[in-house]
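thought: fold this chain, then report.
action: predict
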Amino acid sequence: MAAAASAASVLLAAAERSRWRRVPTLLLPPRKWAWRQRSMKHAATPGRNITRVLIANRGEIACRVIRTARKMGIQSVAVFSEADRNSMHVEMADKAYCIGPAPSQQSYLCMEKIIEVAKISAAQAIHPGYGFLSENMEFAELCKQEGIIFIGPPSSAIRDMGIKSTSKSIMAAAGVPVVEGYHGEDQSDQCLKEHAGRIGYPVMIKAVRGGGGKGMRIIRSEEEFQEQLESARREAKKSFNDDAMLIEKFVDTPRHVEVQVFGDHHGNVVYLFERDCSVQRRHQKIIEEAPAPGIKPEVRKKLGEAAVRAAKAVSYVGAGTVEFIMDSKQNFYFMEMNTRLQVEHPVSEMITGTDLVEWQLRVAAGEKIPLSQEEIPLQGHAFEARIYAEDPNNNFMPGAGPLVHLSTPQADPSKRIETGVRQGDEVSVHYDPMIAKLVVWAADRQAALSKLRYSLHQYNIVGLHTNIDFLLRLSSHPEFEAGNVHTDFIPQHHKELLPSRSSVAKESLCQAALGLILKEKAVTDAFKLHVQDQFSPFSFSNGRRLNICYTRNMTLRDGNSDVAIAVTYNHDGSYNMQIEDKTFQVLGELSSEEDCTYLKCSVNGVASKAKLVILDSTIYLFTMEGSIEIDIPVPKYLSSVSSEGTQGGTIAPMTGTIEKVFVKAGDTVKAGDSLLVMIAMKMEHTIKAPKDGTIKKVFFREGAQANRHAPLVEFEEEAE
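observation:
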């Protein structure tokens, strides 16, 4: 395995360097680097100096660890798949090594390859990030055998907490309240079904080794038990190589409240207060906050103390999270423990002024936890919004593709952008579709929520579907603003959060038309400079051309509707725009700020400013009121692609692997029947029949790869 060329170091922005605030931390003393190859066969025991750390992960979390390592004067070693060769974490690391093809099973999940890189690079420690090998007991044990520090808990803690049935027994013995369920060894379908009936529907089935919402299903009736169980088993097998299940009583409209804990090798364990992660889709978190809203001080204390008991019960070391479900009376029950750094750890850092990655590195080297429980402050309020490549209007279907345009709010000490991508990078179909985490802090919840919404308006992406507009609607919902959150929040408020598409306001259509006209003018001006004929009548794109006021007819497309706009070019550089029976007076100009184009515009005397992007026959406008997309119709004689295609069958919503095929040619199906199951972006997606009919052809076998928009199933044509 050849090492890639050493990546150039990326300097931290001043805002990033100063963002760890309120509780000062001491940096490790400067040291001279030992570049020579050194033996890795020494004992992996606390008390060793860590001068070089390998990050066995990719994307945002790899970049996050590298930043703290650099701050502490620790060299970073990255690993990458062939798909990530030009990625941000590779560029940031001091050294980087390719470990295989794009599929994670052949790269980021290959323990032996990562251990080999650790030896070659002389890294004393491995930080697993989250996901991939972070909660893999075998990997933690292998690191120990090879004399490499695993920056995480002992393998025994991963084992005990990773098997949910075992963890429930340990927690009950430690006096931590647990929810009713079945965690037994008999995994037969019949046994699980009988226990579900005994517990009483609705029930939750979960992969015993699960996490991240994978292998998890809510079953509300006996009739759907078998199909949901089989689906959960398949997903669990793919994600964790273990399809064992447990069953729990499903608590209706619960809150998901979790506590950040931290332990060291000296027996000390502290908690860094709680986070609320209730608002979820597909059983995965989408927005988190700390502290949890509305929690009584005495409940907060009981939560923290229960989490510490849980950690001590398994001799926990490092960063961990104890997850609870909480009912409407603030009774809480142990759900599971994540034996790693969580995706949402930044909100806990923001309210306590800590750097948990720095704590991880210090504790892994044998130091004590930097602060006692009494010294850990709880200051202000923080939110984290996860920005995903997904389509909320299509059941949050994850997507992939290039980030053609990417502009973000400016980071500062109270605002963090945790990301592993840049403009021009691609969200890969092989990995999680998260683009970034937007983290904000303020003195109280209302101020933090206002800052979150303001920052989301400044986060603009073109090239693929994202959930940014959905996050704006969510964070602006009155019930969310009031702190009335629970795990059914999105289904309960579905109509307000995912409203039907409405027509774009005529004023916004005028803005889009003006943006297009001014872009044309910029091209004309460039042409004028090129031909060096300033007096050519074709060099003017306003009413001065040919010394007359003239009108052109434009057509823009709002959704599926064409909108005719009659544009009159006036002598003074303004425009009159007529849409249907209404006329608007419009004027404006383009400006450039920080590599972005802005449209300064006045429509009937009302001034506004919008970020303008025109790409692939689409006009994008981003304002503090929201974002709009207006298409520029392609003339029929230029269109080479027919829009039929989907009428007689189903198409793949994304690139993925066909995991299961339920139908064959000649089968009769009803609308909503399951046709196929796809595995894509680490999740299982069931493709259902869009209508009643007879299957004419199935295009893919199980195990085959289907590209996005490929036809999957064709129906027989209906008789006239």
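thought: worth noting. The longest strand covers residues 582-593.
final: tokens above.
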